[in-house]
């Protein structure tokens, strides 16, 4: 039995070492050995009220948001369904009816 860690992406147990990296032959995911030994502290994204957000949640905009380079405005109370959490300053990716795909900051939304 191998003492190598399972793939964090697909869970495969057939991982192998390649220099300073672990490699999964099933999904081709590569990660460093130091990342595999460190603790897995995942980033928690919260809305304006402190509720934890997850992928697929529905949120409501709490402030009028002007879109740069456009005359469009996302109005207060706009419901945004099926959000996707991402890394970065604008940590929510979504589609808003009448506007299209955009990124939002979690501090300007509240969970429904």
From TrEMBL:
<dbReference type="Pfam" id="PF08274">
    <property type="entry name" value="Zn_Ribbon_YjdM"/>
</dbReference>
<protein>
    <submittedName>
        <fullName>Alkylphosphonate utilization protein</fullName>
    </submittedName>
</protein>
<dbReference type="Pfam" id="PF03831">
    <property type="entry name" value="YjdM"/>
</dbReference>
<dbReference type="InterPro" id="IPR013988">
    <property type="entry name" value="YjdM_C"/>
</dbReference>
<dbReference type="InterPro" id="IPR013987">
    <property type="entry name" value="YjdM_N"/>
</dbReference>
<feature type="domain" description="Protein YjdM C-terminal">
    <location>
        <begin position="45"/>
        <end position="112"/>
    </location>
</feature>
<dbReference type="InterPro" id="IPR004624">
    <property type="entry name" value="YjdM"/>
</dbReference>
<comment type="similarity">
    <text>Belongs to the YjdM family.</text>
</comment>
<feature type="domain" description="Protein YjdM N-terminal">
    <location>
        <begin position="4"/>
        <end position="32"/>
    </location>
</feature>
């Amino acid at each position: 039995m191998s003492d190598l860690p399972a793939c964090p992406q697909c869970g495969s147990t057939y991982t192998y070492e390649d220099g300073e990296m672990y490699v999964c032959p099933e999904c081709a995911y590569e990660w460093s050995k130091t990342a595999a030994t460190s603790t897995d502290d995942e980033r928690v994204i919260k809305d304006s009220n402190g509720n934890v957000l997850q992928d697929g949640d529905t949120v409501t905009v709490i402030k009028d948001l002007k879109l740069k380079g456009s005359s469009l405005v996302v109005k207060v109370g706009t419901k945004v369904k099926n959000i996707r959490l991402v890394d970065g300053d604008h940590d929510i990716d979504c589609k808003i009816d009448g506007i299209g795909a955009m990124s939002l900051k979690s501090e300007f939304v509240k969970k429904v």
